[in-house]
Write a structure and sequence with these properties.
By secondary structure, this protein is an alpha/beta fold. It folds into 3 domains: 83 residues, Winged helix-like DNA-binding domain superfamily/Winged helix DNA-binding domain (Arc Repressor Mutant, subunit A), CATH 1.10.10.10; 134 residues, ATPase, nucleotide binding domain (Nucleotidyltransferase, domain 5), CATH 3.30.420; 158 residues, ATPase, nucleotide binding domain (Nucleotidyltransferase, domain 5). The strands form 4 sheets. A 5-stranded mixed beta sheet has the order 6-5-4-7-10. Strands 13-12-11-14-15 form a 5-stranded mixed beta sheet. It has a 3-stranded antiparallel beta sheet with strand order 1-3-2. A hairpin with a 2-residue loop joins strand 12 and strand 13. The longest helix has 25 residues. The N terminus is likely disordered.
Length: 402
Amino acid sequence: MHAHRKHSQPTVTRGPAFVRQGNEWAIYQHLLSMAPASSPQLAESTGLSKVTVTAALSNLERLGLVEQTGVRGGSAGRSPRLYAPHARAGFVVAIDVGAEWIRGAVADLTGTVVARLDKRTPAKVERFVARIVEIVDAMLDEQQVSRDAVLATVFGSPGVLDADNDRLRLAPNLPDLERPGLIPSLRDALDADLFVENDINLATLGEQQHGLGRGVDNFVFMSVGTGVGLGIIADGRLHRGAHGFAGEIAVLPAAPVVGSKSDGVYRPMFEASSAAKGIVAQAQRRGLTVANAEEVFVAANAGDQRALDCVAEEARQLSWGLASIIPILDPKLVVLGGGVGRSGALLLPAIRDHLAQWLPIPVPEFAVSATGTDAVLLGAIVLGVERARVKAFERLGYATTA
């Protein structure tokens, strides 16, 4: 098998100036996945002639998108020069907004994080945009990066962007985010090309690129914390749905209370029963003095039967939601994340047992995410770097559709 077949890259075309630019774009894309690489290696990978590749690398180096990193040793005769993308030719800003923390990161064009900063989410919505600007400016100043060098800014938050009205919907745990005018204010303060994406979708991209989802074409990332959400990777791609609401499992009905004779007219939503507040409410009804869901899991690990009963009920609730999802998506893997999901080791045995009992189809593999609290930022960087690399070429007057 030829090396170039291993890369899913833009088609390499041939022709005059427009095609030359297309070839340079394709070479740059190959270099991103192979770096450091020599001109002969890139010629083999792209199928272009060595003369074409050498000329393209020289031009990309002159334009500041590629740099030499040395020579490859160990071969007889003249050693070929090695090339790599110029990492600091542009930068990406990633922002993750949660109920308690706003997390920020800056990455270069290779996706390497060069700055990180977290600050508390302000209590007053009037401080929200200013707090984000504080975080971004502090990170850029630390790296001595100008605003002009930021080629993409990705904002991850609960809810879904209503593109027609440029406002967020379905963010009940941070209702201030749904305020009209908030997203336009962010665009004005940060970047007109600000990209807004659901936080769980971003966490799913982070899991796909950096976590347990690598190489898994069909998996779901189930986040359980302040809220509940699902990110879906189907056939290797993030599935958003027609309006961006795919994975908004918070609105599913909760599992019925054991032994109840409800007429089905009213039932609380899945999120109310299975998210952190629901766990705490269960624990307090059982007489446990706890301030948050983490304390319930600590008590369960210590053997407290009331806490263990809460964990058992949480596993039943999550299984109920998953039983609605698995027959439709048929994922190979379910990754648990979020503040509660990261305590999933206690939950997983019961979840597997419930699903095996309820479903006459194979139960997927289960695992607890290893990306921790940075999952959303990691996904935002994945998305941002893709956009920034395109923009780096567009700034040169290049077309990137070849």
